[in-house]
Write a structure and sequence with these properties.
mainly alpha, 3 domains, 236 residues, 10 helices, 3 strands
């Protein structure tokens, strides 16, 4: 038996050795094993096919053992929801608030929002129960008037957004299941206005804006479960 056969035989016997020793399957570098199998091909085609198939089968067994190990580890992480519920009920409001403040991820960001708009948002939140005191009718009307002056809430803007959707964006979505946000925006001279259109259309449910977690790319799709076929973005 030559050196190449010896290397392949070691790989073939590896699952049995792991079973006897009770070792961690993740201690085995699967990628390295595959490289060894490829590097130790035998000249005899029949013998090579036999050894390689047995070695690949051993690698698949190790991968299966790794999967079983992960599943067993996840079982140990299972937490009784009823127990959590009872603990939350017994927690002081102050402690609960600190935990929520520390671990809650905001669903909205303030990137590219002007200081004036942030100030308006803070004032507005101060008027809404339970965050702030109950506002008088006059205060509510005043703030409503301030917001209706904003282009986002202007009726004409909504009409423009819908016209943009029907003439431009809908056609793109009919041609392709997903439209790269950045590439699409860059087609237009008035990029900021187009960005507002997309934000409005997404909020109104005409489109969905999602992010591919693998590439970080922002994509525009038809509304999930909407008129056009939606696209699933893989997570792993």
């Amino acid at each position: 038996m030559n050196d190449k056969e010896e290397e392949l035989k070691k790989i073939i016997e590896l699952p049995e050795a792991l079973r006897k020793l009770g070792g961690d399957p993740f201690a085995v570098n699967v990628e390295e094993l595959l490289e060894k199998i490829n590097a130790n091909r035998l000249k005899d085609r029949v013998k090579s096919l036999k050894y390689e198939s047995q070695a690949l089968n051993s690698v698949s067994i190790i991968v299966e053992k790794q999967e079983e190990w992960v599943l067993d580890a996840l079982k140990g992480l299972k937490i009784d929801p009823q127990l959590i519920k009872e603990k939350v009920k017994q927690m002081p409001f102050k402690d609960l608030g600190l935990i929520l403040a520390k671990h809650t991820t905001p669903v909205l960001g303030i990137k590219r929002i002007s200081r004036e708009r942030i100030k308006m948002a803070v004032e507005y939140l101060g008027l809404i129960e339970p965050w702030g005191k109950k506002a008088s009718l006059g205060s509510v009307i005043r703030h409503e008037n301030e917001y209706t002056q904003n282009i986002i809430f202007d009726k004409r803007f909504e009409e423009e957004a819908m016209e943009f959707y029907e003439k431009s964006l809908m056609k793109e979505l009919q041609k392709s299941k997903t439209v790269p946000y950045k590439d699409f925006i860059n087609k237009f001279d008035e990029k900021l206005k187009v960005a507002f259109y997309i934000a409005y259309l997404s909020t109104a449910g005409f489109i969905s804006v999602i992010r591919n977690p693998l590439t970080g790319e922002t994509l525009i799709t038809s509304p999930l479960g909407g008129e056009f076929e939606s696209v699933a973005i893989p997570f792993g």
